[in-house]
Input
Amino acid sequence: MFAELFAKVNTFASHHQVLFAVIIAICIISASWSLEQILDTYVFPKKKLVGYILTIAIAIVILWVTKHFILHVM
Output
């Protein structure tokens, strides 16, 4: 599974898509962090653990979708 993923990422270099992948990863991390802060402040002000767990679940789903897109669509 990871060998296929690394092979796909290695082929991105010829089209400068690694740069785009890094930019997208930074954007996803930033969006995840801001979502966590919003959940902590407004949705679960007294229950920070629920906000953290929800943010981790969303991040795992985003990573799974990204992996699926790289392996099966590209």
Remarks:
- The two ends are 15 Å apart (CA to CA).
- The chain has three helices and no strands.
